[in-house]
Amino acid sequence: MGQLFMMGFDGTSVSPQIRSLIENYHLGSVLLSAKNLKSAEDAMRLVLELQTIARDAGHPVPLLIALDQENGGVNSLYDEIYIRQYPSAMGIAATGSKVLAHEVAVATAQELKAVGVNWILGPVLDVLTNVRTQPLGVRTTGDDPQEVSQYGVEFMKGYQKAGLVTCGKHFPSYGNLEFLGSQSDVPIITESLEQLSLTALVPFRNAIVHGLDSMMVGGVSMSSAGVNVMHACLSEQVVDDLLRKDLKFEGVVVSECLEMEALTHNIGVGGGTVMAKNAGCDIILLCRSFQVQQEAINGLKLGVENGIIGRTRIEQSLRRVLNLKAKCTSWEQALNPPGLPSLTQMQPSHTSLSTRAYNRSISVVRDKKNLLPLSNILESNEELLLLTPLVKPLPASAVSRSVSEHSNVSLDPKAWDRAASVLSGESVFKELGRSLSRQRSGRVLHTSYTANGVRPIHESLIDRASAVIIVTADANRNLYQHGFTKHVSMICRSQFTPAGEACEKPLVVVAASSPYDFAMDPSIGTYVCTYDFTETALEALVKVLYGELNPIGSLPGSISRSQKLHQARQHWLVENWNEERDAHALDSLLDAVRGDCAQGQRSELLGVTSSSFLLRREEIDEAHFVVRNSSTQALYGFCSTYFFRSTGTGVIGSLIVHPARRKLSIGNSLHDRAIRTLLQRNVMKRFQLGSRLPGIYLGIPSANSVERKRLRQWFANLGWNTALSRPVCSLVLRNLPTWSPPDGLIHGLQNADVAYDLVYGWGYADSILDHIKTNSRQGVIDIYKVALGGAPHCGIIRAIRPSDGAILGSVVIYNGRSTLAEHMPALRSTQVSTGGISSPVISPSVGAYATVMQGLVLLGIKQVRKNGAEAVIMDCVDSDSNFNCLSGLGFGTLHSFEEVNCDAVSWTMMPSS
């Protein structure tokens, strides 16, 4: 049973209590925190001693050694020499680079692995659905579920690449907690399960799909329609039903620490342990109290003896825990950590990575009057004033370490906080002041501010200085900082010259933690965000303030949306498309958009003509719209829509605005008209952004990350839930005459119990369409119908089980003379003769998914080559499941998109005024 607990202890050496837990109870996992770790060398020594105790006590497998190392302000292991500092999760998101996120995660995990840690409690997967008051702050990526999801997966894969197992947190979400009582009461999630599913659960679901090893379930309560839970980690509805059954999580589930005051008072730790185990938790976490830890073990033992907990559940948990250990450790690894030589070897590259990450994260949100760099506004003989708050030191920072080691602070936590705050105010930001002064010949004045507000000393220094910098750290939760900043801002705007003329004193506000402090307050004209106030972050800030570094960071999530200038929305006259009148003008519009494409970037509109948008099929209703100049006949904008009667789906297939006419609300006007028209259909069931037929835009273009982010935000503002988008792409295989399949592929396919054939025409329609209906996404069935009617230029390759003739998979092939090619312009975007493969559909019952997929595509390539083509385009590829096995055949990405779907009943039109 000891394997089913994770426990912590006090002190920087092995305590008698933790030794007893390992030796006498066979404790399987140990949690280390900042209070245990003085340096990298001491951490390695401590971990090695814990593992040695476990081996000598007869443990069959090593201990899991876990800790939090989220970077930014939350690092359990700190060492100025050997452990590098990296930006917080939100700071990394501000860089806009998933590659950088992956690199930082790998580096973080490598450093932990070197000292013997094998389990990182991360990534944080919470979505800040309420950004203003949540305590998590920059520990999360932000408030965009899709963005949190993508960065979470990159962090997770990076940790795993370096050999650590991962733990997502804090399920089902800490991103929108309500604090209804005192601080000792349990915070509440008031969102329904349906609401959570659309936003907060998206990153957790995605991380599970990509192989998350374990999940921490929070201790928060839940209260909404259909769910009333006192503590999430004690609830079968949350763990067994939601996490295990609905989200299909098969890894290790860890409870929140059960040493919660509310839980201890209302249930008791022994009873809570039994509840957590019955709810489905595999590992129960207890952070520090030996007495409470013993109570938990005895509670579990009693629960099993009394039959409250079934033996099967214990054995299931034990199997999961042992599987987790097998992934990340062995006695050989546990007793021989890489140690300081490994850390020394990594130091140069990790230092460079840290600097690069911080330099890319600093974000200048606004600089209305061009105050930056400061050389724009300050002469060498003028003084600069720096005002910084008194804040608690960062956990595990050098400051907190020096407090514990060098000051005679009483054991009263409030007294410790007071001492730490003073030291922090005098130390953490004092180095910022020194750095500012080193960069310029003029003087830098530096003083702190507190909840006492603007004092006479502040007023005197403001009057004396030629420019002011105010630093805030979570001003939304430390409201005195908000009030102080607004007061100083007012003083700066009320200055006068010696001649009595009104003049505004330059003011720069720096948010050194949460970017939400003044993100949506345009009265703060120059606003910079650093996402944490570690020394490395503040070094990068100084470079930005003095113009040595060009800031490229941007606010993550929806805050960026609110920063865009809200230009007055114009209401353009939207007219129905008239082919005779508008076809030539649309071709000119397409030319303009293609010409505006960035150098080196391939336009999605290559090969597209005005006729590409027209399906002319009886079972599909088309309605296309234009904004035009009735005098010159020029088109300023075009929108294509389709209603697929068979599925009740309304699709926006394209929305195009002339490059010279953007940001004038033309797109908004076209979008509103399209949605209103589609809503008039009687059997409308759902909306889709992106069309597979015609396959011009399969969704929101995503090749350019900056443009993708802008477009996602634009569509989100119009009411689309872009958090639920799905990746889809078009692929290309070039040099077909000289191409050969990978070694061993043909032999592998021959061994499979699958037969393949190529068929043409409606005679095969019934069985193929039955296969498509049960296994495919929207739009694909229509592609197959076009293919069935397009012989001999369109055919369908089938994968069949010989024993019963069941169709296991299918794919469409076509050439440039086919009807389908007219609606797949990617085929005409290459410079050589090209054939097409489209819409692979594999039955979900197939075990060897990748094998069947590769078999279908391999035969498709051979058939296309046989017809004399020099390249092959594969369109409508669901890139979350198919890309890896296709890239192995030699395909590269031609265009990538994000397809967005939503139910018609949930559609909410944005105000048109």
* Strand count: 35
Which stretches are low in confidence, meaning pLDDT under 50 for 5 or more residues running? 394-425, 562-569, 908-913
For the termini, the CA-CA separation is 63 Å
User: Mean pLDDT, as a whole number?
Assistant: 87
3D structure, described in words:
Helices cover 37% and strands 19% of the residues. The protein contains 30 helices and 35 strands. A hairpin with a 4-residue loop joins strand 25 (635-644) and strand 26 (649-657). The chain starts with a strand and ends in a 10-residue tail after the last strand. Residues 617-689 form the N-acetyltransferase domain. One of its GO terms (molecular function) is hydrolase activity, hydrolyzing O-glycosyl compounds.
Quick synopsis:
This protein is of the alpha/beta class.
Question: What is the strand and helix layout of this fold?
Answer:
Blueprint: E1 5-7, H1 16-25, E2 29-31, H2 40-56, E3 64-67, E4 69-71, E5 74-75, H3 89-95, H4 98-114, E6 119-120, H5 145-161, E7 165-171, E8 177-178, E9 188-189, H6 193-198, H7 201-209, E10 214-217, E11 221-224, E12 227-229, H8 237-246, E13 252-255, H9 261-266, H10 269-279, E14 284-286, H11 290-305, H12 311-328, H13 331-334, H14 339-361, E15 363-367, E16 384-389, H15 398-406, H16 413-427, H17 430-438, E17 444-449, H18 456-464, E18 467-472, H19 479-493, E19 495-496, E20 502-503, E21 507-511, E22 526-529, H20 535-545, H21 559-563, E23 575-576, H22 579-595, E24 620-628, E25 635-644, E26 649-657, H23 666-679, E27 686-689, E28 700-701, H24 705-717, E29 726-733, H25 745-751, E30 755-759, H26 765-775, H27 780-788, E31 794-800, E32 807-814, H28 819-822, E33 834-842, H29 849-866, E34 871-877, H30 883-887, E35 892-903
